[in-house]
Amino acid sequence: MGRHSVAEEPVPHPLDPPKRPQGRGEATGSHRIVGKKAPRRRIAKWPIACLVLVVLVAIGVFGWNWADGELNTRAEAQAKACSAGDTPMRVIVTPSIEKPVRAAAERWNNAATVVRDHCVIIQIDALSSASVLDGLVGRTNLDSIGGLPAAWIPESSYWVTELNTAKPETVGSPAQSVATARSADYPLVGLAGKNIDEVQMRAAQTFRQYLQQPAQQADFAAAGIKAT
Q1: Distance CA 44, CA 58 (A)
Q2: CATH of domain 85-222
Q3: What 8-state DSSP symbol labels residue 11?
Q4: Where would I find the H helices in 4-156?
Q5: 176: Cα separation from own chain's centroid
Q6: Per-residue b or e along 89-128, where b marks 16 or more CB atoms closer than 10 Å to that residue's CB
Q7: Does residue 76 or residue 217 have the better pLDDT?
Q8: 96 within 8 A of 184, measured Cβ to Cβ
Q9: pLDDT, tens digit, for every residue of 138-188?
Q10: What is the DSSP track for 202-215?
């Protein structure tokens, strides 16, 4: 009774699974690699760069050919659309707006703008609003302003009101501003009378809309005149 008893190790049952050894990792044929991944294989970048370059060159060539073909197609279409030939259209402007309107007219003419099967060629003349009004209402000879223009752009609606009061039959279409400045609204008014046909009257309205587009408005801004 004075001796300490030693616990006997239980005898494993034949059906129990074998015990795993403690304190060591699983065998892998050698020591186990923990926390490391196999190095990733690098892909060469130069073949991808070459492929991208080839694609970009192909897109550029295609785009250039498409643009060139598109311009040729438009030019051919405009030439066919201008079946009735050229029609001149004279526009008188006040001197302060001559530069941007003349630039717009040159752009219009270079584009061979077609109105009702006519290629309308615009001519710009700069004269004072007072002299133009005098010629239009008969205070002076109409020849003093070079004859009746298809359109007129004075510096103010005041002059259009004076024309409409003195000779309303001369006004072919309502005036509308194409730019503004201090004490000026630059209205374009289409005129009517002898030698002004329907094509010119229509072209005057189309040119007014043309002057209100961004490209032409940029010319006004460059001349120190505000856009509409």
Answers
A1: 23
A2: 3.40.190.10
A3: P
A4: 46-81, 98-110, 129-137
A5: 24
A6: bbbbbbebbbbbbbbbbeebeeebbbbeebbbbbebebbe
A7: 217
A8: yes
A9: 999 999 999 999 999 999 999 999 999 999 999 999 999 999 998 899 999
A10: HHHHHHHHHHTSHH
91: CB partners within 8 A, 6+ apart = 101, 105, 122, 123, 124, 125, 149, 150, 151, 152, 153, 204, 207
Task: Tell me the CA end-to-end span of the chain in Å, nearest whole number.
Answer: 120
The H or E element containing residue 220 is helix 214-222
Residue in this structure with the two tokens 């000779």, named with its chain if needed: 167
Task: Return the residue matching tokens 């186990």.
Answer: 32
The predicted pLDDT at position 170 comes to 96
Grade residue 2 by pLDDT with cuts at 50, 70 and 90.
very low
Of 130, 126, 39, the closest CA to residue 90 belongs to 126
Residue with tokens 């609003």: 129
Tell me, what's the pLDDT at 44? 61
Residue 71 confidence (pLDDT) above 50: no
Spatial contact of 225 and 95, defined as CB atoms under 8 Å apart: no
- Indicate the burial class of 60 (C-beta count within 10 angstroms; 0-12, 13-18, 19 or more): exposed
